[in-house]
Amino acid sequence: MDTNDFDQKLVAKIKQDNIAPKPRWHFLLKNYVIWAIGLLALLIGAAAVSVMIYLFKYNGWEIQEETHKSLWDFFLLTLPYFWIIFLSLFVFILYYNFKHTKHGYRYPVWFMVMASILSSIILGSLFFLAGLGEKIDNVLGERAPLYDIVINRHVDFWFKPEEGRLTGIITKEKDEQGLIIFDAQMNPWQVIMQPDFPSEELRLNQPVDIIGRVSGPNKFEAEIIRPVRPGRSFFSRPNIKGDRPGCPPKGCHQTPEKK
Amino acid sequence: MIDAKYAETAPDEELVKLSLADQDNFLYLVDRYKSRLMSYIRRLTNVNTEDAEDTLQEVFIKVYLNLNDFRADLKFSSWIYRITHNQVISRHRKLKARPEGYAVNIDDSAARNLAAEINIEAGADAQILKTNIFRILNKLDQKYREVLILRFWEEKNYQEISDIIKKPPGTVASTINKAKQEFKQELAKQKLNL
User: Fold this and answer.
1) What CATH topology corresponds to B106-189?
2) Of A26, A207, A221, B59, which one is least surrounded by beta carbons within 10 A?
């Protein structure tokens, strides 16, 4: 190689094409964008974890023997698949951005994947303790399309009267004839129960899940009644809150106070 | 432009700063690296001198364009080798050809080092040693060939190779080990002596 010739050609090329070093901000911006997207993915993933913990905690563990054939069956059928897929997507985005930081290549894939998952879980747990999981579920329950079928399949699972599960919102508090609930399709149900059935939590506008059996047209004999936690704001939707008897003038959209 | 004598002893990082201040100083960096990088390009590819020079020119233009992206937490030599490595790969990807090494760049000491590392006694005939090593290297998968070239011909340590090919140091170590095994197996398969 003729070194002088090479130098001259290189200088000529740089001058001819007006080549100049790209400004420093160009690289800094690229770096910041990678970090910002990674941070956003972490926050969204952590929010998903907080909802998963909320759903998991109020999954109906105490009545799983009544609703499922086995604990394993209960576990598989109540896993929050939507949130697991959602979390996986954002963990991947977090991992991808981590890998594309300046020194991301120095870490093995397993380390980056584990770091992404663990950071989402730790931050997600803090979000859960701060009540974010419940808030997100309430907002989605009230507004998200396909909430009852995709996001929180609890609602759909509990609306199977012929299989002994009924869910709805209390529109008439307990008296000697039981109580009245409206299901998600605005059908009224008379819920019959034993006179000594504990009813402290069965307040007006409280969404409830009921285990029992259909005992007549729109009559349901209750064995177990539990207040709905995840998915309760689904019953605050305009098409459900409607003008049911017992609703205040603004509609039955208020969520019950926490006990 | 700075004094040539000062440029000879100035560290790479200093020359980068001086090149950003004055374009002419960039030639000192070019002079410092062009022979090494030319050899590296020709070890990685089988292109003729003219094509290798074109690749080298593209490398230096990329280096100049991205000077502001260089950070002192990385060795400048690793950074410039990384750009060269990527440029060779992308050029060959465009041509849809597998990079193949060039026999003339296999030197004795590196060849003997490699033979010693894989516990094979090299014969006295340097020409046979070089020819056979070249044959085996060209039979190896590209990922194995490039780490062997960086380790034994460019004399880079694991951390430097990690920074050049952008893989974790642990992965580099295992790839080098695997490359040595593959080299030994290929040598036996071809029934060649070194």
Assistant:
1) Arc Repressor Mutant, subunit A (1.10.10)
2) A26
